[in-house]
Amino acid sequence: MKALHAVLAGMLLAAAAAAHAQPASPLDGQWRGRSDGGSCNAPLDYDITIESGIVDGSATDTTAHGPVPNTKHAPPPAAMAGLWQIHGLARPGDFPLISVASVKGSNRLEGKLNARSDGGALIVSETSGCRRTARLTRS
Questions:
Q1: Inside any domain, residue 108
Q2: Backbone CA torsion sign across 105, 110, 128, 99
Q3: CATH of the domain at 31
Q4: 92 falls within a domain
Q5: CA quadruple 28, 123, 102, 42: dihedral positive or negative?
Q6: Is residue 84 included in any domain, yes or no?
Q7: Residue 35 domain flag
Q8: Beta carbons of 25 and 52 less than 8 angstroms apart
Q9: Of 4, 82, 131, 133, which residue is most buried, by most CB within 10 angstroms?
Q10: Does residue 81 contact residue 56 with C-beta atoms inside 8 Å?
Q11: Which residues of 78-109 are buried (b: 16+ CB within 10 A; e: fewer)?
């Protein structure tokens, strides 16, 4: 009898979870593309997944380089962010996204992005920083 109650309780919880699940978004899918260089002359390679309207992905700067030997004992150059994590909620029309750089130490770099659907493409633009723009296609 206890096993039957446990099974029924499990089925009720599963049904309740399914009832609260996010509906599929028309933008759901895997999106990829490359941005222009913007004012920094550093293009980003975007790889974004949208599932039930939830945006999760990354952008990689292939021009960013790690530490190099400092033979002249000069101050080291400022570190560049090579990997950006992207998060947000996809909505009809324009919608904001947040990007956070993966960097060491206490330097927390954040950026704001604006995304919009344009036919079969997703246009992602930086609203600050380098002001790069990318045209992503569904893969």
A1: yes
A2: positive
A3: 2.40.128
A4: yes
A5: positive
A6: yes
A7: yes
A8: yes
A9: 82
A10: no
A11: ebebbebebebebeeeebebebebeeeeeeee
Sequence letter at residue 72: K
H runs (alpha helix) in the chain = 2-19
Q: CA gyration radius for the chain?
A: 21
Question: Closest Cα to residue 42, out of 123, 106, 110, 129?
Answer: 129
Q: Please name the residue that has the structure tokens 């002249």.
A: 72
Structural domain that includes position 92: 24-64+79-138
Least Cα distance to 116 among 37, 30, 27 occurs for 27
pLDDT, mean of residues 92-104: 87
Cβ 63 vs Cβ 35: under 8 Å: no
Could you tell me where the beta strands, DSSP code E, fall in 10-120?
29-34, 44-51, 54-61, 83-89, 95-101, 110-118
pLDDT per residue as tens digits for the range 28-80: 999 999 999 999 888 999 999 999 999 999 999 877 666 666 677 776 655 55
What are the tokens at 50? Answer: 């949208």
3-state secondary structure (DSSP) of residue 68: coil
Indicate the length of the chain as a whole number: 139
- DSSP assigned state of 27: T
